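LOG
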Amino acid sequence: MKMGTRWPLGHPAPAGLPHVVEIAIRAVEEELTALAEDARAWHWTLTWLEGNPVLELDDGTVIRYDKAEDSATITQPSIVLDDEDDWI
């Protein structure tokens, strides 16, 4: 059984993550830097689901690893716009 952990955004990820997951983490962090998002207080949360890492950032961004494909999928939270004209 693997235990999960939390670590601050921008700090090294825990050892043992698949390489494609590390690439996905860097991609998310680089995008936040490019957008000048104030994420200094944000953390990653790592949990293991059926032996595969699932990472969630405090803003709701999720990275899931697919062992069969050796791929990582990034899902970003949707943005809800308060638009009074959305009924048109």
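LOG (cont.) second protein
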Amino acid sequence: MKRFLPVLMAILALSGVYSTVLAQNTGYYEKDTVRQQPRQTTIEIPEGEGRKPMAKPQSEVPLPLLDRLRLGGSFGLGFGTVTNINLSPMAGLNLTDKLVGGVGVTYMWLHSKRFNVNSNYYGGRTFLMYSLLPMVTLQAEYEGLNVEYFDSVDRRYVRKWIGSPLIGGAYTQPLGGPFTRGVHMTLLYNLRYQNQLNPFNGQNISPYSSPFVFRVTFL
């Protein structure tokens, strides 16, 4: 029995060494989760005596197109002697923080049994809106409309395109929407209203009743 004692002790010693080596190899092949985390390194360079700190370069990145886009429009309803429905969807883009440019399409329907009027007006417009103050917006616009008027010589209705340059301003209330940023109570003046006349009877053929145009616009 004594002759086997040294052999038994040698086997136990070798088993311990093998277990230690196996544990080390297993730990080496395990996934290193710490190394997968982003590391941030901050190096501070001390400023020398009499040395001015270096200014970091600043670059302005323009906002994405989707963040500068505005969608909305204006509408109007009138009932009475003359029924007037006015729809005008609009799309705009912030050219700067205060300047918005855009386009829109316009459709108007006028109906009156008393005056035997049933007319459709359609066209488009382009506009610029400048935010002078948080609640004051200046606006310039050019609107082209296809209108209908009566030819007293041929005794029939004819159509004609008229162009209207409009200027004015608006009282603006912010809405905070992603595309519709505010509501604008706008008053515009038509610079060509007095020249938009029926060549046969001299009456005005503009769908607006006066050179002053009032709109409520969401944009």
